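Hi Q.,

Before the meeting this afternoon, I wanted you to have the flavin-adenine dinucleotide prediction in hand. No need to reply - just skim if you have a minute. The sequence and ligand are here:
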Amino acid sequence: MPNHMWMNDDHIAFADTVKRFFDEEVTPNKDTWTEAGVIPKSLWKKAGELGILGATFPEEHGGLGLSRHFDAVTFLEQTKAGDSGWGVSVHNIAAHYITAFGTDEQKARWLPGLASGDKVAAIAMTEPGTGSDLQAVKTTAIRDGNEYLINGSKTFITNGGSADLIVLVAKTDPSAKGRGVSLIVVETENLEGFAVGRCLKKMGMKRNDTAEMSFTDVRVPLTNLIGTEEGQGFIQLMKQLPWERLILGYMALGASQCALEHTLAYVKERKAFGKRVMDFQNTRFKLAEAATKIELLASFCDTCLTELEAGQLTAEKAAMVKWWGTQTQCEIVDECLQLHGGYGYMSEYPISELYTDARVQKIYGGTNEIMKEVIARSLDID
Ligand SMILES: Cc1cc2nc3c(=O)[nH]c(=O)nc-3n(C[C@H](O)[C@H](O)[C@H](O)COP(=O)(O)OP(=O)(O)OC[C@H]3O[C@@H](n4cnc5c(N)ncnc54)[C@H](O)[C@@H]3O)c2cc1C
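Predicted structure with the ligand bound:
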């Protein structure tokens, strides 16, 4: 399995803690939470106590002040443990809008609760009428005295049913396109006019309470605008999306490793025509291909992480790691499932969940077609 050259003793110790957390707190409860369609709030608190949620938040706001390498460790360990239903990545992404663009007062107000797990975060961009074309969002946040009056609806929101804090993408100037977009924090507790609709039934990620939500004359203070200037939301999104896309690259990597490990164990046990499935040349070649792709993806993710930390990760390279990483993940889990034969199709085998969970990776975080548009645009310059 890949050797991440940046991993020092601190990263290894952190990885041990996170791995133990998944082994002890998540894995034994997977079936119960899959049935419930939601992760209990108590898990967030436990993760907060271990420093998993706030690893990269500033120390003065309840975090550990560490580099993004530590978050990468978390997303790797989560997916290596075969989970992608717990929306910790979305919580992290939402919080990083506050760390990156929030005022000191906003950071002090919101980050400690997000680090401790007392508050769960979501990010609400997608609407029933628009997903890929973010500039076309219809949700409005109109100034009214010292408040914003919010109207609109969102869909497919990860952690939507349990979110205490939502980073909302809304138009503060509905007459403008991208320049009219702002990011506004909505705190959901006892919030009049805010409603969570159904938790959506999905083919994968069944432990996540992905939900619809509506805003009807919801009022929040003007001070909930992230940053100090309206109309900055689209730029803020563009600046943070490389991190979101790299997270999906690391999650693709961990899930691919998990699929390979389960498959290796299976094909060494299973017999056909008097020999182990592992002994067929086709099996050996498929596994060799998967192991090679995993090494390539790890190197690519690590390069992107180095560039991100140096402030040099471009939108197009982040798009490359997202589309290629998730495409590669889907190829690997498909081949791994095939090597399980009919058992791979049965829910009791982990490869089955890895397969259904993988599919959405090519869709959310910007579809892979949009990623290729971003890359092609960067090539189409004279
Ligand atoms: C499980 C799950 C969790 C999600 N979590 C969140 C969340 O937490 N927050 C959030 O805001 N959203 C979330 N989403 C929404 C997700 O980001 C969107 O589904 C995604 O951005 C695509 O938008 P859409 O579904 O409206 O598809 P559309 O934009 O309608 O796209 C339909 C198809 O057209 C293609 N297409 C669109 N435009 C172009 C173009 N210019 N060129 C070529 N092809 C194009 C797309 O690639 C796609 O194949 C989630 C979705 C799922 C399924």
